[in-house]
TrEMBL record:
Similarity section: Belongs to the CFAP300 family.
Protein name: Cilia- and flagella-associated protein 300
InterPro entries to which the protein is assigned, alphabetical: CFAP300 (IPR029416)
Species of provenance: Pongo abelii (Sumatran orangutan)
Gene: CFAP300
Function: Cilium- and flagellum-specific protein that plays a role in axonemal structure organization and motility. May play a role in outer and inner dynein arm assembly.
Subcellular location: Cytoplasm, Cytoskeleton, Cilium axoneme
Protein keywords: Cell projection, Cytoplasm, Cytoskeleton
Origin: domain of life: Eukaryota
Chief localisation class: cytoplasm
Entries under Pfam families matching the protein: CFAP300
Length: 99
């Protein structure tokens, strides 16, 4: 399956939005508080768009499709418990499948 094809994902198509910024995480006041709580650099926000109206009764399908989507796996960043480094979902996917 080529990247971006729907496949068996419940019909959802996700796209990574790397240019999306979150002013709420970069304001001076918030940056100061994150530093105070030792969270600066340990919290990150990423944006992904999807092609359908969200329907709460299909939330489980939505979440499963999100974490299996070929556009999400190489882009979603996670903070590693063991190393404290940012890694991608693709790198940690073996561990996530066990959950």
């Amino acid at each position: 399956m080529a990247t971006g094809e729907r496949g068996d994902l419940g019909g959802y198509y996700f796209r990574f939005l790397p240019q999306k910024t979150f002013q709420s995480l970069s304001s001076k006041e918030i940056t100061s508080r994150l530093r105070q709580w030792s969270m600066l650099g340990r919290i990150k926000a990423q944006a992904f768009g999807f092609d359908q109206t969200f329907q709460s009764y299909r939330k489980d399908d939505f979440v499963m499709a999100f974490f299996k989507d070929p556009n999400v796996i190489p882009n979603l960043k996670l903070l590693s418990d063991s190393s404290g480094q940012w890694i991608t979902l693709g790198f940690a996917s073996g561990r996530l499948r066990k959950i």
